[in-house]
Amino acid sequence: MIVRKLEDIIGTENETDTENWTSRRILLKKDGMGFSLHDTIIKLGTETTIWYKNHVEAVYCIEGEGEIELVEDGTVYPIKAGTMYALDGHEKHHLRATKADMRMICVFNPPCTGKEVHDENGVYPLLED
Description:
Elements: H1 6-9, E1 15-17, E2 21-27, E3 36-42, E4 47-50, E5 56-70, E6 76-80, E7 84-87, E8 93-109
Antiparallel strand pairs: 1-2, 2-3, 3-8, 4-8, 5-6, 5-7, 5-8
């Protein structure tokens, strides 16, 4: 059984902080669950272009407000607490926190190792360790 508290992750190597977002990686590949679980803050006023070409991701917003825009056709979906979206087609998108920081619970498959940061195309590389 695995039991973790967010307070035990903040400030460790399992927390990644960038200009646009902070991701606290709660479950990782090494945990053997077949997915990774992240508690992520999208910072107010930021726009991040993301393309998970190596992963599928499901995201559930628990705080804040913003939007996701699909690059392919420009469709914009509002996001607020209680909204879920799933990138089951590896959609390239822009993620914006427009009215407040957004706190998102994210699930990735294949699982992340915890070392991932988006590359210049918004892609998480597929890491083995």
